[in-house]
Amino acid sequence: MSRRLLVTGGAGFIGANFVHHWCQVYPDDRVLVLDALTYAGNRLNLALVEGRENFRFVQGDICDRTIIDDLLSTENIDTIAHFAAESHVDRSILGPAAFVQTNVVGTFTLLEAFRQHWEAKAQSSDYRFLHVSTDEVYGSLSADDAAFCETTPYAPNSPYSASKAGSDHLVRAYYHTYNLPTIITNCSNNYGPYQFPEKLIPLMCINTLIGKPLPVYGDGKNVRDWLYVGDHCRALDMVINHSQPGETYNIGGNNEVENLNLVQLLCQMIDELAPDLPVRPTKHLITFVKDRPGHDRRYAINANKIKTQLGWTPSVTIAEGLRLTVEWYLNHRDWWEPLLSAEYQAYYRKNYL
Ligand code: NAD
């Protein structure tokens, strides 16, 4: 079927990559992006699709019910891909209120609006509400624990993960209570083009390129699973098109890496790809800083369900994905330089200095 999609948060990192993917694979589908353009949203992330006949951008807040009602009905939306969120753990520690507002209240507002819209359309079986969430809702693992699966109990530890857990529960409840055709995905750490400079991989790439210290929390031994963003977008496409309503899928790259090892790997790659940098070898920039409060030790994802039920597997290895990402940041100075704004510097000082 051809779809009419509302993509919330489509000017952010994963949302924009998803919009590129969707417009390329389904050029006849209508794609409408709703994004508040917070510090993390950037209209330039959508430059590749702006101007297409089937694409429209609207600046607005997912907590604003009037805008959502209007877009759902005038655009006759049948599918919501919900990415909009406050997404950075460190900022949630410095200021949790925005996380509760956007992630919990915003998701609730979208669910209510979509429920009424879907009921007005005789509860069409083609409708879908995809809620894009995180593996952080499951809490922290120790070295010997089994990876998170879809039935792992929720145990969020940061205001970010708690607000995402709250939104996941609301989405689940709307399926069970109203039969709203929702699907939840919980994915591990993404990386790739268009990721805002505050996140680990772009932070390390950019600081290396400008000769600033590379801040590594604590002992650097926290473990994350990494997935290239394009592989996440392919998984979300499969979920929208082939999953049954009410399902939950874990998505991960099966690439567990300690933070310090990841930073060392990036330094090695950057030394190779950018031989003219002021500080070389760039690993000399690595600086250990005070650990993040409540820092989860390890995340790991068991993605067997999506692999066996929908046939998804990651296509990019971590070595390939990191190289693509480093090359992208090397070639897109004009994209990231303006993002190192006074607001960003103020956040950076509060967080690391
Ligand atoms: P991001 O911070 O890069 O982008 C978020 C986008 O949402 C921005 O464009 C921002 O302007 C927009 N937004 C924020 N508040 C809004 C509001 N009230 N109304 C409308 N738009 C608003 O985030 P991301 O990394 O692209 O993450 C997207 C989604 O994927 C999030 O829900 C996040 O929890 C989830 N997720 C992210 C990762 C990851 O590694 N980045 C992993 C798993 C899940």
Q: Could you characterize what this model shows?
A:
By secondary structure, the protein is an alpha/beta fold. The protein has a domain at 4-191 and 228-253 and 297-315: Rossmann fold, CATH 3.40.50. It contains 12 helices and 12 strands. The longest helix has 24 residues, at 97-120. Nicotinamide-adenine-dinucleotide binds next to helix 1, helix 4, strand 5 and strand 7.
Q: Which structural class is indicated by helix and strand composition?
A: alpha/beta
User: What is the CATH top level name of the domain at 4-191 and 228-253 and 297-315?
Assistant: Alpha Beta
The DSSP helix count reads: 12
* Mean pLDDT metric: 97
Question: What is the level-2 CATH architecture name of the domain at 4-191 and 228-253 and 297-315?
Answer: 3-Layer(aba) Sandwich
Concise summary:
42% of the residues lie in helices and 16% in strands. With 353 residues, it is of the alpha/beta class.
Task: Sum up the structure in keywords.
353 residues; alpha/beta; Rossmann fold; three-stranded mixed beta sheet; binds nicotinamide-adenine-dinucleotide; EC 4.2.1.46
What's the structural blueprint in terms of helices and strands?
Blueprint lengths: L3 E5 L4 H13 L4 E6 L19 E5 L5 H10 L4 E4 L6 H6 L2 H24 L7 E7 L24 H20 L3 E6 L1 E3 L8 H11 L3 E4 L5 E6 H14 L5 E4 L4 E3 H15 L12 E4 L14 H7 L7 H14 L1 H4 L5 H11 L1
Parallel strand pairs: 1-2, 1-4, 2-3, 4-5, 5-6, 6-10, 7-9, 8-12
Antiparallel strand pairs: 9-11
Helix pairs in contact: 1-7, 2-4, 4-5, 6-8, 6-10, 8-10
The structure holds nicotinamide-adenine-dinucleotide (NAD).
Nicotinamide-adenine-dinucleotide (NAD) binds next to α1, α4, β5 and β7.
